[in-house]
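Hey, can you fold this?
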Amino acid sequence: MVKKYYSQHSRTKHTYQFYKDRQNDPKWRNDFIEARSKRRKSIAIKSLAVLLVICIAAFFTFRQHNKNNGEISATFSQNSSNQNSSSDQDSQKSSTISSSTTQQSSYSYSSDTSLSSSTTEASSSETSTTNNITAVKNVLQSGFEIAPILYNGEDVGKAMDEGKAPQNTIHDGVEFGYLKDDSLARMSLMGGAFDQPYEISEGILTIGHFQFNYSENGNSITFDTYEKSYSDGSTITWQLSSYPGAKYSVDSAYVQN
């Protein structure tokens, strides 16, 4: 059953989608803000509960893993102790062979050092890129929102209030989405849901006609805004932000393409 929220305006309960469709109507604006706040709190609580369960499961898995490693290490130590006595007898024979082998391997080592160093650097860079792309996917998989924030460099809400921007700029422009697989995102716009191709490379996220630069900062990903010019002469600045409730909104769209 779809959850409903009480309205101060009509004194009855309505769905979130009902308020969302009327968010730019002054009569329903406060009800929409209140419903959105309650909805986000509910989603946040559920997300925290799921995260807590995952952390507990990970803890016990890690604990069991360490226990198994401890048992393997004890067995290995015992075997090594038994082998040490026989190894001492062979050490004198090995020393003579080792001396000549060392002279031969020293040249090989010096010639391979530069190659090993460059390979390590390339591997480190590739690992960093892979980790960043994975971090971006983790953010997008939980849900995201793409919304206009500036219209010709001015706050979009203010521009709408002053008649400088179309009154439906926000309502018709906001898109919700989540990652469907490794190449498609599931998006919703104006009550309709559809698939949109996306691509993540080092520092750049391209999704549909949007292109956001991103950077890794500690354990978080920061997305830059994206500015796009349109045929009517306007320029809109878009912002991508995390929105865990996006999947519910997308999958609840009236039209599913």
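Oh, and this one too while you're at it.
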Amino acid sequence: MKKLVLFFLLLSIFKAYSQQKLNWAEVVYGNIKGLKENKIKTLKLKQGNKVLRSIEVLSDKSILVKDSLNTQYFDFDDENRLISVKSVKDMWQQQFNLNFKNNYVNQLSKTIDNNGIVTFSKFSKVSFNNTLYEEREVYNFDRKKNDSLNVFRIKYFFNQQNPDLSYRETYNNGKIWNKKYFNQTEVTKEKFDGHFIVDSILQKDYKVTKYHFENYPEHQNIKIENDSVLTIHKKLGKKVSEKLEYASIPFREIFYDENETIKEKIIYKNYQNAFNEWVIWEEIKYDERGKVINRKFPNKSIYKLKNGILVYRQNVHRVKGCGNSYTIKNKMLSMYYLQLYSSSILFNLKLNKNFVDNFDTSSVEEDEEELIYNYLDFTDSSKVTADYSASKDVKDEILRTSKGVRRKDRYVKRYFEGLEVEAETMTGKKYKFNPSQNSDLLSFPIHTFLTKEDY
């Protein structure tokens, strides 16, 4: 009987001990799943009595990370993937949000709240007929005044019955609207103080027709352009004049009275010179009855007409030369900022600085999106996963830079010598871990955000 009691007593002690044993590889990695399974309440990275970084498990889907620079909140989904990280410092906070579709990020957003002025950027991927399209939304908002300072968005609208009538809409701060249909028709409306302009492009049978419409309170200008250009001027809705041009040379002008009746017409006869340039040779002006009232030859002193071609007169010498013109533009300089977030207790400020200092932002092309996200998982040979709109050069650069924080003894000694991790479980038990002596257990999940700002 005594042996049986002793057996159950030893068994209970063994079970209690085994239940309290921590899987340090999961704990220091910082994945929410590992923290929950090891029943972690808090983690502290300490140097003596000084706490360098701490992690507090707030719930099954949320942790709080603190260091000397920021307070950060990490939120995870049901599959233990990061879906939100928020940094808070004084009156400033920044938040990144991720949406997943299957195993890929299909939406990424950034929100900065600087003392009530909110800057928001969002990129989304939507699918239609097995093709991915990217939507974008950017705005500035003043919380105190409850007023939008600037709004820009690109959104797609899909027509299931007739895909050609699907379109991409661009909206810019209430001033510019653009719709580009899948059949290549495009309409742009630009609003000004007191008037607006509408531009349209219509493609049919490989022919392109452009329409330009300016609407003022008392007059309108209309331009229709294909092989030739027809310009119409109206006043209070009634036609005032129209002009037909080809290759920027007028061919016909008509002027109307208040009843839209022709009161004057000018016909331009044009011929080509030896350089195949169209030149006005004769202007014929007609009255309202079609009678010629004036005829002139504006270029007769320069050319003479011979067999339907304008040739220079002998006393005219034309010199075709090269001229220099300089245009100075204030080009906006794009700068990229690398922002790193990790739920690992071991991803300290020294590691962060080493990563940022060695990352070459020149690898990011000018036409890259303004937000790029990559997830580095060092448990899987430092592979880049869950990328969002990042080029191969950016991915290669992230991998190149990550070599500086891989788990090698010389790096471990550099960053973790003299440091220890203190873990406290939900039951109040405390455990300690020396990272410099357990390099085989060290790894980091690093969420990398590249953000572009113009100057």
